């Protein structure tokens, strides 16, 4: 059984209703909308397709709105003779970046961050296109940054600009992010992702907007700035999930440091019971090729054995030649690794002051000893599921929830299969009968098989160690 979840970035290659249904059937658990690209009209069409697809497939596929953040990008280049909006920058040539809106050429290009000329100084390094092109700042003249090309390469429209070692003055939640967040809240996404967070307080503006709109969604923080790594624990505690965004992080920091940072992030996230996603170039060769490289296969498997809840596709599904095969491939790697490599996942301790984790820690040995087929949790929020999923059980967690928002948000948690049950609230003989019917129907279990049922009281008070109960139950 596949316990690891799959997050897929949606783009032109996979945004049709039929393709989305195929991705869901092949293993997609969360659909990621990248707000760095596209218009509100395009996002709405895709969002409606996702909602219709998950309804037809009958799967709790979550929808994540991933906001651009203070990401600095190039503007648009004019098309060359081949019809491509790209240029080749030669080593040693002069090249300028301006905050004015211009059409880019081989001589220079605009950028999306208007205060960039104020934040850089001579001697600073600018890395473009994920570090493939390297520039040195020679001077600043008004709104124009004068640079020299140190590492040559191709540069095309809308590619990223990174400034390692430079602290930019842009707010964590930009005006565009605020507009996108309000749009996402109005149109019913299930979770949001914030980019380029540097400290825990960077989450406050988004939290304030959600509270004002009375629509508070889980915040997934993309860890991609050196300052974020310095403030790792405070950020993990403040958010509801972590994304190891290796692309920008490996540009902002020496790339050889990133694997160790990832492991620390995973360990920290699991301790605080926050789902963690491994992202960037997981199967990038499959953008064009039908099979992954051996290194990519190992990367996906090792992410799971390191303790990640999810692995994520980016361009592989958004613009790749065969998104369906990509998801099928990732699902196969995940399933085999979960079945044969779960013992390699590091153990994690329960927090003694968290009653839900203490209860879950007691439930797992009992489940294994009694050879239970699954753990059933009655929960109205994601908290009880997080408290047991963090231990990476080798048997599935069936989360019975009366809350539709929780039903979709649980799509991100390791080993969790959500069942929407608005009529199941508290344990009783009648409720156990209904659970049995669901277990035999939706979950595929059989009469006579054993499960452990965990119930939580006072979910909002995790410090209360006596706030739940465990029932040894045989399906009738």
Task: Name a few traits of the molecule.
M1 Pyruvate Kinase, Domain 3, TIM Barrel, seven-stranded mixed beta sheet, Pyruvate Kinase, Chain: A, domain 1, alpha/beta, 476 residues
Structure commentary:
The protein is of the alpha/beta class. Helices cover 34% and strands 23% of the residues. An eight-stranded parallel barrel has the order 1-2-3-13-14-15-16-17, surrounded by five helices. Helix 5 links the parallel strand 13 and strand 14. The relative contact order is 0.11.
How would you characterize the largest beta sheet? 8 strands, parallel, barrel
How many beta strands in the DSSP annotation? Answer: 22
Given this structure, which CATH class of the largest domain is correct? Alpha Beta
Flag low-confidence runs: 462-466
The number of domains: 3
Q: What's the CATH H-level homologous superfamily of the largest domain?
A: Phosphoenolpyruvate-binding domains
Q: How is the CATH topology of the largest domain named?
A: TIM Barrel
Strand order of the largest sheet: 1-2-3-13-14-15-16-17
Structural class: alpha/beta
Number of helices in the DSSP assignment: 16
User: Span between N and C termini?
Assistant: 24 Å
